[in-house]
From TrEMBL:
Record-annotated Aconitase/3-isopropylmalate dehydratase large subunit alpha/beta/alpha domain positions: 42-479
Catalytic activity, reaction form: citrate = D-threo-isocitrate
Biological or metabolic pathway of the protein: Carbohydrate metabolism; tricarboxylic acid cycle; isocitrate from oxaloacetate: step 2/2
Origin superkingdom: Eukaryota
Cofactor(s) this protein cannot do without: [4Fe-4S] cluster
GO molecular function per UniProt: 4 iron, 4 sulfur cluster binding; aconitate hydratase activity; metal ion binding
Example GO biological process: tricarboxylic acid cycle
Protein name per Swiss-Prot or TrEMBL: Aconitate hydratase, mitochondrial
Cofactor: how and how many bound: Binds 1 [4Fe-4S] cluster per subunit.
Annotated family: Belongs to the aconitase/IPM isomerase family.
Lineage, highest ranks first: Eukaryota, Rhodophyta, Bangiophyceae, Porphyridiales, Porphyridiaceae
Subcellular location: Mitochondrion
Example of a GO cellular component annotation carried by this entry: cytosol
Length: 757
């Protein structure tokens, strides 16, 4: 009985009513199995089960669920390889609504206009590629200057009760509109775009009950700063943080988004709020009244059941919650405002504030901007300007245009502030900071989310603190971290003392939002004839050539490329930093393959023996040598191989340079799945002690592949230099579908061949 309502004004062909109908049907099946009250997180997650009938009753923290997300969002850095892989699947269009957002590749230096123009030149080929692929394959493309992925999603795509995956850690921002929005790696995005079900371990649910009401200097940001202090950077791992309770009423929708956004800092799978009238207000203000009506009508599935139980419960009384400042160097080192000056003194942190930064995907709502501007106006009235550098990165063109129209940008400018491009900029180190030489200890405070060493400006001596935009603004007006705006005074132009009144602002613009410039490119109505732009001589982009299918034979006499000693994270396998610019070029980025891993033979990084020449060389060069000489190779590793990020390059690179198997004591789960998807053998020693039996000059054969089957071990014959051969049993976790990927050469090959069949 639902009316037909698109999921977004930009996507008239989609139907939110279908999403809600499926959710309802799934939940009646799951409820019959579980027979207990459900949390909101469970309702949304289980409401998106691919096959609710066929799946066993979900157990939080234990079962693996196959889900059908409603949409995919990708930012420009991660979208490159994901899109290249999607293209290689040979599908005509993405299976679910997908958008691409150009925000990470824009560096901040000389203000919005100049910085955007420079980024458009520097990254032209990447933007052209993403725009052309978007047009062809049905993906909405948000041009550079449109804003930051999570803000654009909140303004245009987030839906109460929806399930979204995004290739960025702060995807949970959409939880502010009651969505389960999860940050993933490119490989997961490719699966969903290609129409595969998406796997997630049933999350645990941490309840945060809010009571009371925000007041004076306290803002939504302080809720998450407090929660981060309680749970620490690991405390949310494997869990969805579900806020509830009467205190939710005092939070704006964008404030809830801020809280969810920064849930990434406690390692949470995502964070979310129950649907309420504050969300409806925001939907109405962003031209989505029909979605609000539909959500109002389906309220029961968008709020938690009475009496539902959480795996952990935290209570926060907003009446007594103080503003917080977290840092330096970690987002969970929480200081209440009243104790902060003392902490600065005691720890010897630089008290002078060099730069205050507001905005980013975390805190650039209209409300944030008006509340900050209310403080600046008070200062200007007293003839006071910023004592620190003050920069603002608006989250979207819509926010920028609206705050320009409403005089907020000029207020900041009058006090000496600068508004940078609608992009990530200083939040991700895209900041050519010139006020402090590298290596000089100094303090900055931001309303962003992450503050790890060097993140913002590449200077390990920069002490970065995180606080609400209002506090950042107050600190920047005082020029000092020891200033407590709730109790201390500033001096006006005549030297008289005055106190800032607590910030105030509008949750939503009274005159409505000004959409600003048109920065959206819709997909073409018919994309099949369109070409994707990749230059043959590009160093940053390379179309992928499908990997060869398995030839039906055992892998005989493979060279051991490297036996890794100790930790082998995705960073050891595919380093970040300067290599990021090659994310869209598999051959070029493969020159970082395993260069961080320690060779068990000589305890050195990037120095392995070439079994054919006997000489020592870099790992990628040696792998290339083997490949050129038709020699397959394997890697041997220790425990928890591939932990860290979900970067799919860590599996693509070994496959590209001729690797056939990775044999380890144990895998990090995502790394194992990624290897399987690329057609590699991800195998474990049945007896972990067998790791010690492998020597650098061994040749390894993997036999029994023609009987490769679920639950059936494989065997390695390890040939020593003296000709002796030892046999080792190898276990694996391949299921029948995954064995199909291996045989086809990769999961995408399998999709392509199924399509052709
Ligand atoms: Fe961008 Fe920083 Fe957010 S990098 S997506 S503004 S966390």
């Amino acid at each position: 009985a639902f009316a037909s309502t698109p999921m977004s004004p930009w996507e008239p062909h989609t139907a939110l009513d279908k999403v809600y109908e499926k959710m309802d049907a799934n939940l009646s099946i799951v409820r019959a199995k579980l027979n207990r009250p459900l949390t909101l997180a469970e309702k949304v997650v289980y409401g998106h089960l691919d096959d609710a009938h066929g799946s066993p009753a979900p157990v939080r923290g234990k079962s693996y669920l196959k889900l059908r997300p409603d949409r995919v969002a990708m930012q420009d850095a991660t979208a490159q390889m994901a899109t290249l892989q999607f293209i290689s699947a040979g599908l005509p269009t993405t299976a679910v609504p997908t958008t691409i957002h150009c925000d990470h590749l824009i560096a901040a230096q000389n203000g919005a206009v100049a910085d955007l123009a420079k980024a458009n030149v520097d990254n032209k080929e990447v933007f052209d590629f993403l725009a052309s692929a978007g047009a062809k394959y049905g993906m909405g493309f948000w041009k550079p200057g449109s804003g930051i992925i999570h803000q654009i999603v909140l303004e245009n795509y987030a839906i109460p009760g929806g399930l979204m995956i995004g290739t960025d850690s702060h995807t949970p921002n959409a939880g502010g509109l009651g969505m389960v929005a999860i940050g993933v790696g490119g490989a997961d995005a490719v699966d969903v775009m290609a129409g595969l079900a998406w796997e997630l371990k049933a999350p645990k649910v941490i309840g945060v009950k809010l009571t009371g009401k925000l007041n004076e200097w306290t803002s939504p940001k302080d809720v998450i700063l407090k929660v981060a202090g309680i749970l620490t950077v690991k405390g949310g791992t494997g869990a969805i943080v579900e806020y509830h309770g009467p205190g939710v009423e005092s939070l704006s929708c964008t404030g809830m988004a801020t809280i969810c956004n920064m849930g990434a800092e406690i390692g949470a799978t995502t964070s979310m709020f129950p649907y309420n009238h504050r969300m409806a207000d925001y939907l109405n203000a962003t031209s989505r009244s029909a979605i609000a009506s539909l959500a109002n009508a389906t309220m029961g599935n968008l709020t938690p059941d009475e009496g539902c139980e959480y795996d952990q419960l935290i209570e926060i009384d907003l009446n007594t919650l103080e503003p917080h400042i977290n840092g330096p160097f970690t987002p969970d080192l929480a200081h209440p405002l009243s104790k902060f000056a003392e902490a600065v003194e005691k720890n010897g942190w630089p008290a002078e504030l060099k730069v205050g930064l507001i905005g980013s995907c975390t805190n650039s709502s209209y409300e944030d901007m008006t509340r900050s501007a209310s403080l600046v106006r008070q200062a200007l009235d007293k003839g006071v300007k910023f004592q620190s550098v003050f920069d603002c990165t608006p989250g979207s063109e819509q926010v920028r245009a609206t705050i320009e129209r409403d005089g907020i940008i000029s207020t900041f400018a009058d006090a000496g502030g600068i508004v940078l491009a609608n992009a990530c900029g200083p939040c991700i180190g895209q900041w050519n900071r010139e006020d402090v030489p590298k290596g000089t200890p100094n303090s900055i405070v931001t309303s962003f989310n992450r503050n790890f060493t060097s993140r913002n400006d590449g200077n390990p001596k920069t002490h970065a603190f995180v606080a609400s935009p209002e506090l950042v603004t107050a600190f920047a007006l005082a020029g000092s971290l020891k200033f407590n705006p709730a109790t201390d005074t500033l001096k006006d132009k005549d030297g008289n003392e005055f106190k800032l009144k607590a910030p105030y602002g509008d949750e939503l613009p009274q005159k409505g939002f000004d959409p600003g410039m048109d920065t959206y490119q819709p997909p073409a109505a018919e994309g099949s004839a369109l070409k994707v732009h990749v230059a043959d001589d590009s160093t940053r982009l390379q179309l992928l050539t499908p990997f060869k299918p398995w030839d039906g034979k055992d892998y005989e006499d493979c060279a051991l490329l490297i036996k890794v000693l100790g930790k082998c994270t995705t960073d050891h396998i595919s380093m970040a930093g300067p290599w990021l610019k090659y994310r869209g070029h598999l051959d070029n980025i493969s020159n970082n393959m395993y260069i961080g891993a320690i060779n068990a033979e000589n305890k050195e990084a990037n120095k392995v023996k070439n079994q054919l020449t006997g000489e020592y060389g870099g790992v990628p060069d040696t792998a290339r040598y083997y490949k050129a000489h038709g020699v397959k190779w394997v890697v041997v590793g220790d425990d928890n191989y591939g932990e860290g990020s979900s970067r799919e390059h860590a599996a693509l690179e070994p496959r590209h340079l001729g690797g056939v198997a990775v044999i380890v004591k144990s895998f990090a789960r995502i790394a194992e799945t990624n290897l399987k998807k690329q057609g590699m053998l991800a195998l474990t020693f049945a007896d972990p002690m067998d790791y010690d039996k492998i020597s650098p000059s061994d040749k390894i054969s993997i036999v029994g592949l023609s009987e490769f089957a679920e639950g059936k071990p494989l065997t390695a014959h390890v040939k020593k230099t003296d000709g002796t051969v030892i046999s080792i049993q190898l276990t694996h976790s391949y299921n029948t579908e995954q064995i199909g990927w291996f045989k086809a050469g990769s999961a995408l090959n399998k999709i392509r061949s199924d399509l052709a069949a």
